Amino acid sequence: MRTHEVPGQTHGTPHVTPARNNRGPRTLGALQSTVGNAVVSQMITVSRMMTEDEFRQGTAATGMRGRSEITKVDKALKAFYALPDARQGARLLALKDIVRACGDYVAHKGDGGSRVGGTQRLGEQAEAAQGQLDPEAVFRDLLTEIDHVMSEGKNPDLDLRMPAGEAQKAAQAIPADRFHTMMGDFVQKLGALREDGTLPEETRAVIGELMAVVPLVTVMQYPRGGMGGMKLGPDATDDNPAFTFNVDTQARGGTSFLLGHIAHELTHVAAHQAFGSSPVMELVQSGATDEEVAALAAERKQSLADLKAALAGNPEFDDFQQGMLEEKLVYGAQPQKLEQYASSFEKAGKITAAQKERLVGWGRAAGDASGTLVEYDTVLNQMLIYLHMWQTSQDNPFYVRLRAAAQAAYDRRSRARRPATDGPAEQSS
């Protein structure tokens, strides 16, 4: 999972399971009311596709229907019509089920059979109907669909319907202005989590920090020919920074994945402003020495190791959650990351040779943990959002350690924003 910018690309990322929170569960409906996935700017109803009765009449035959493979098409069509118009994402998946069922039936029968013609027509109508759906409504509803899959304790990565991939396709079809507005809505939903009385204070403070830099993000778009993540805009200056957010819409973990991704990327912006970073957005106070950076990287590496130990065998997380968290813990400390970014940015003309030399030196000072100098704070804040939306028990050992690490990182960013005082800049996280 990549979130950090590289030239020609960009800086690059949750899952809702039954509550195990000692405050009592929030229902799926409560989650949706929090994030507003059902809110869409327009609704398009699928028009003129055969009804169930019309399909039965058009595929009537002398043999017993109940013993025919045609019943699989009947079942798929019935499932589609059972869905309300508002469930545009679920309707897309149901239409695809109809197309598959029709194709399987025709392949089974070959060119023969009195029901083949009507089945082919239904398949063609279901294929055409997919293009009548509103892509924003589809995207939002597919997030809800993934949330629902996970609320049943299922692994969304194993969902053969591939709703995350379909959500990504839908996002590509949303006009740029609507996409920006839609993502602005999700940013505000992240901010609205502060109204949840169960939100830990550490997470509340972090979200407040992130909301303060939202005005600096002037473009939110689907990644066009690049990767998801945050980057400084082409017209950005020291006095007037402006960021472009290429949003990772392959939200394989549903709503919590997307909000966690947003938190991750806004952390890049907040840290950039706090530390006076280069366009690489390193998480190091400007002017730090190699010795200070080495100590900082070692401390962060140990923090991630402690989190890994607390995660190992943790009974509260299912396989999908374990995998998501492990991804972040690895990503936060990958070796050679800062050096690779520095070389790529210098080659693309985004930083000077002197800046590259300084960053490469810091990366070497970090040893095998240079990733902590660009992704440590970001993955901590991302996991804070995951665990809150997964309703993880706040006394879970992993959650306890995570909140402590995130609070320390938050405090360091806060100190960096204050006017300089006598003595060297403090680098401990």
Structure notes:
- The chain is mostly helical and 429 residues long.
- The chain contains 16 helices and three strands.
- It has helices at 28-35, 52-58, 70-81, 88-109, 116-130, 135-151, 163-172, 176-192, 201-213, 254-275, 290-311, 319-331, 337-347, 353-365, 372-389, 397-417; strands at 217-221, 229-232, 243-246.
- Strands 1-3-2 form a three-stranded mixed sheet.
Rg calculated over all Cα atoms? 25 Å
Q: Report the count of strand segments.
A: 3
As a percent range, the share of helical residues equals: 55-70%
SS field, number of helical segments: 16
Q: Sum up the overall morphology in one term.
A: elongated
The pLDDT mean sits at: 86
| Percent of sequence in beta strands | under 5%
Order of helices and strands: HHHHHHHHHEEEHHHHHHH
Helix and strand composition category: mainly alpha
Low-pLDDT residue spans? 1-34, 39-44, 420-429
Task: Tell me the major beta sheet.
Answer: 3 strands, mixed
For the terminal residues, how far apart are their CA atoms? Answer: 24 Å
Strand order of the largest sheet: 1-3-2
